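Regression test attached.
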Amino acid sequence: MIVSAHAAAGAALGSIMKTKSYKDWALLVAAGVASHVVLDFVPYWYSDHPVFIAVDTALVFVIAGAIIYGTGRFYPVLVGAIAAAAQDIEHVLAEYSIFLEEAVFISHRPWFPRTILSPFWGLLIQAVFIVFVIWAAFRYKRPPKE
Ligand SMILES: [Zn+2]
């Protein structure tokens, strides 16, 4: 999925999951990373166009910011969003840096089964998904100190 869909999912996890103990935080990070792999199985559409990437990146901050603002769970939402979306930074590194030849994260490997849909269906699926996880983040949010 696109970065903003990954970040929305991670932000929702941070809103919903417990963050009282270190174990809770570890579970949140693990769930965020796992969500990235699961969501890359979902058929979608994306573009390499700089405008698309800019809008997608801006949406990350709008969505995570809205969930932080609406739930008061700053660090859980931030950590969840980073754990779920930061893997996609390697696409940029693989493209522009000499240190990374190709993407290494499991769902970015060439053999990982990815299905790219038409722009209409690919974006519609992700838009519906993003709306759903934002709804879930607010519906099932925990108090800031849980
Ligand atoms: Zn990815």
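Expected vs. actual: identical. The pocket of zinc ion is lined by residues 36, 40, 87-88, 107-108 (CB under 6 Å).
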